[in-house]
């Protein structure tokens, strides 16, 4: 589904990703862990098409498409979803209008007609209930004045509505209480199937108790320095990243 | 304001004394003959005389600007003397030893680092005493680096092609009323040329001082930084105490060619007038720089003197990726009036400008920031950030902000923010409670307020500027 | 073409018999108009706004009275319970009006119907709040004045239903001028809502409108005010809103400027009593070759007042927008809080924005802040929407709309939100692909 080969990325003249490679097949859940500043968010941004992230060399292929030839919205429509580490507040644009615009765009790409307003409203209410976001949040500005946890739930809501093939969740679990964490996990698990894949960026084993990954990778200095099964996460939890230092260096 | 601050009062202008040097001074009045006299005194070439005369004719047709937030009696331009030169300098001194000792003592009182001090501080000083440059130090060392630094009157003879090419190229002869007047009668000033790729080996410095009664001072400074060169220039100004108002109308032109950087710092401490608003300098100055590609011009000013300050050091960001900066502290006390700010004219792509202005008003003074940020249609990706803060001390002063923002490019971003605050009794109380006396407390608060600007000043100036604020603030509160 | 000149404008007089009791007022204003300086590029307050459009048509006549059919949809605000006055080209249309029976608490009267007491009230305030000396077009409006609307609310009376005043223009054979005047006098503790709604019936327009409003708020009075400039593009509107607030009075005013080829609106709030508060919000949208100029002045003359002003503008095509926001704190106005924010989106390199948030402060114990920005839509927001599959162009429209929608969402009367949203959506283009998700 996703194949990243020897990816080098530069931001504002600074090399952030230095030869990162990663293969993700349909049906898999990958966890990426790593110290702060190692380039985890950068990976999500460059895959989803944020401006200012310069691909120096390497490639990323998603469902047979060269990702770097597509603009951000086309990647999203093709089924790539990024749950932001820091979701953006957009005052004045209501969450509902935002969600509908987004879902319509993705459906249009799939050759499906847009939902009529009533049907969509129902759907959105239903899904927001499933992430425990009260319906008022649909009327407010996008993420405007939402708490950290509400923003994360709103990200999961978007994921549920857009039904992406590959979802990258960038520290969606950070700062969540246990209930919210379960909401996120349920959202992911509900969507887990042979056709979909996930990349979970996280610092904590905790999330992986709820969403059991197939692979765990450690990202350091812009490269994957160690990969393993779900046990690796436990090991990291116990020992931190320091024991990887030699490999990092 | 509490009483403790009331007590923090009354100091005299420290730089206020008159040097007794026999001067060669023109009688008051302005006409064609005066301009011819000035020009011939300096044995100027014909083209320069013509240039002056054209400026004078333009000036006659112009009106004094009225838009500034300042009030003053009309200036009688015919009651001013337009030339004054210390007589004993008819034959210019060959070295410092030949300089009139009286003059040197003057500089000492002002604390100008001329002798050993200068050497130690690594400062080359071009002193303008009234209208004629009397001594230039470190010329040789600069020459070695290829840096030209001399009075502009000399440069006219030594480097005529540079003068002819650049004089008036940034501030045109008829740019404004005072610039036109300056162009007609300018006396002297500094000339600097930094060759390609040269980093000027030391800070260059000029002290200006108005001495003779009724002499307007009209210096003209021209700094040319050739491609990829660097220079930092310091300007300090003082004037003796007088009852009448004295006019000062200078022009400073900066040219930063491709990749060059000019840093121009000013500490202006002209005589501000007495506590009742009598006397003081009228300071009407035109300062402007032009930046070519990737060039940078940075203006830093600490303005504490003058009865009236009218001054807008500006940058024309002509070249792509060029940078303009303006850092200003303007302090007014008693009856001082300041209307100062900057213009950033963005013409090139990805040009950047930053404006940090700190106005402090005390006594019955009026302190205005006036600025213009213009994004031309071609200024793709240009950015400006302006922060404009006022601090009021006492309830009889005024603090004003007049920022003009003009944008004609969709991708340009202009951001302007302004705030006002006061030295609050709570702050003072807190300081007192911690054992700090109120004088010190006020000066600490003011210094903190100005920190962002002071950090842009060269080291020795920053210290001086802090002290200057302290002195200027005396008697501010009550 | 004779154009528009100062003397000619002064010569144009109202019907001689119109409201004799206003004759002295008209005279005075005519004198002031003649004595005033015709604004040009050197006039600071008109620096960016040339009056050439006025000279392009001879507006120096009043419209011929003609009955016109006006569809209700043109002026109605669905869902709004209100009293309504409808003027077409300055003429009142009684059959379109909807007034509650007169009562003591509140009276809505035309100047021409004013009784003696009301005449006295009008004479007392008219021209004292909007001074002819400080704006020539106030003087011009005054010199042409023959009618107007008075809203008077008695002490401690709270009037629930807004007064909706519709000023409709409709094209005439030749260009013409329309003058409007509104005086609102709220007695102490009184509360009211006024909607000034300028609109026109079709795209082809040839009028020059001067609409001047004066609000006198006694101690503790509260006024909610809307001024909607929704005229079609060929109009010219030069008007002003002037308010004086006594102790603890409160004004909440909103303007929307999107019509006319030339709009100039002067807003002035004078805080004349301690502790008064003004909330001023506004939106201007300018496209094509439109030119809009908003000059707001807030005078804090007494202590403990507060002002919060939020103005946003979007400028497209070759349009121009001018915003001058002045806050003036007088020596006596200690403990004032005043904030002003003006943000602009500039959509093309041929459009122009001129903004000047001014502060003039003569008191030290005050907190003032102002800010202005001119920019594009934020990159990060755009990316967020794009990363959800939304087309870049559509995302831009959504974000631009969101930029002003925040202020619409803050309007106290929901029917107005419902009225304005589609109008604003329309502004972003008829391409439904771009606007389908707004609202
Ligand atoms: N816009 C930017 N400009 C400069 N440096 C950046 C920018 N964005 C990220 N970085 C730097 O890139 C590195 C990786 O950041 P990020 O991908 O956010 O790390 P992580 O998500 O793993 O904590 C950090 O050192 C960060 O400071
Ligand atoms: Mg991160």
What does this protein look like?
The complex is a heterotrimer of chains A (249), B (478) and C (439). Chain A has 249 residues and is α/β, with parallel strands linked by helices. In chain A, 39% of the residues lie in helices and 29% in strands. In chain A, strand 1 (2-11) and strand 2 form a beta hairpin. In chain A, helix 4 crosses helix 6 (148-162) and helix 6 (148-162) runs parallel beside helix 7 (178-191). The mean pLDDT of chain A is 90. Chain B is of the alpha/beta class. In chain B, strand 3 and strand 4 form a beta hairpin. In chain B, the strands form three sheets. In chain B, strands 4-3-7-9-12-14-17-20-22-24 form a ten-stranded mixed sheet. In chain B, strands 13-15-18-21-19-16 form a six-stranded parallel barrel. Chain C has 439 residues and is α/β, with parallel strands linked by helices. Chain C has nine helices and 19 strands. In chain C, a hairpin with a 2-residue loop joins strand 1 (83-88) and strand 2. The mean pLDDT of chain C is 92. Chains in contact: A-C, B-C. Chain B binds chain C through residues 67, 375, 377, 390, 392-422, 424, and chain C through 44, 331, 334, 344, 346-376. The structure holds adenosine-5'-diphosphate and magnesium ion.
Total E-strand runs of chain B? 24
Rg from alpha-carbon coordinates of chain B: 22 Å
- Our estimate of the beta-strand percent of chain B is 25-35%
Helix content of chain A: 25-40%
Question: Could you give the distance between the termini of chain A?
Answer: 31 Å
Number of distinct beta strands of chain A: 12
Structural class of chain B: alpha/beta
Distance between the termini of chain B: 6 Å
Helix content of chain B: 10-25%
Strand order of the largest sheet of chain B: 4-3-7-9-12-14-17-20-22-24
Q: State the shape of chain A.
A: globular
Nearest-integer average pLDDT of chain B: 81
* Helical stretch tally of chain A: 10
Overall shape of chain B: globular
Which percent range describes the beta-strand content of chain A?
25-35%
Oligomeric organization of the protein chains: heterotrimer
Overview in brief:
By secondary structure, chain B is of the alpha/beta class.
